[in-house]
Amino acid sequence: MNTELFRQGVPDTIITQHFGRESVTQSYVYDHRSLGERLKDVDIPDKAANLFQPGTPQETVAKMVLSDLFGGSSIAMTFKKIQRESGDEAAFLYLSQNSDGFHSTPYGFCITSFAVNPCVKHLKCFDNCRHFLPSGMKEHRISLESLRADLKVMRDTAAAKPIKSIGRKNQIAHAEQLIIGIDLALAAQPSKPLFESGTDHSTPIEDLFR
């Protein structure tokens, strides 16, 4: 019922009051609309509409940025910064030129430009990557569950080594970190940012030896 009320365009404040919740945030926990449904009523301003062709990844990303659905991503934060400092025209021009990033990975969606910023995580989307967007799709769940099973075998194999084995502790910690990320991805709400405060891997890595 919560999802259907959102689909019918009922304001989130009314939905929250109807169910007797303490905050609007609680209502969005039970919002299970698809990404397409969430973006259906998001409009790109007329003065910028000609920059985004309907049905393209650029339009999808632009709507995600405007709806604040992926507000923690680098492209969204840069868009807002340009908008504050240089106005709407410059901000939407930036968005049109940098919003080609909407890719389907084996584990969910990625909102970054692979052409400009190749994936430095080698598609480890679930490893605290700010650009990761869970999809809830069956195919992605199967990939995550399969990888989780492999990582558990790797962790247990490392744990079975003698305690003083070289690298044993790091191998176990690394596997457990990835398993935690996968568990979060499997439990996440579809089309909602999972690691909004996570690492922006598209930014240059500081040279530790400099």
Quick gist of this model?
It contains ten helices and three strands. The chain has helices at residues 2-7, 12-18, 24-29, 35-39, 46-49, 57-66, 74-86, 88-98, 138-159, 168-187; strands at 103-105, 108-110, 132-133. It has a three-stranded antiparallel β-sheet, with no helix packed on it.
Low-confidence stretches: none
State the distance separating the first and last CA atoms.
Answer: 57 Å
Q: Count every beta strand, where a strand is a DSSP E run of 2 or more residues.
A: 3
State Rg.
Answer: 20 Å
Largest sheet: 3 strands, antiparallel
Shape: globular
Q: Helix content range of the residues, please? A: 40-55%
Order of helices and strands: HHHHHHHHEEEHH
Number of helices: 10
Strand content: under 5%
Specify the structural class: mainly alpha
Major beta sheet, strand line-up? 1-2-3
Question: What's the mean pLDDT score?
Answer: 83
Would you kindly provide a written description of the structure presented here, covering whatever features stand out?
This protein is mainly alpha-helical and 210 residues long. It has a domain at 132-187. It has ten helices and three strands; from the N terminus they run ααααααααβββαα. It has helices spanning 2-7, 12-18, 24-29, 35-39, 46-49, 57-66, 74-86, 88-98, 138-159, 168-187, and strands at residues 103-105, 108-110, 132-133. The protein has a three-stranded antiparallel beta sheet with strand order 1-2-3, with no helix packed on it. Strand 1 and strand 2 form a beta hairpin. Helix 7 (74-86) packs antiparallel against helix 8 (88-98). The mean pLDDT is 83.
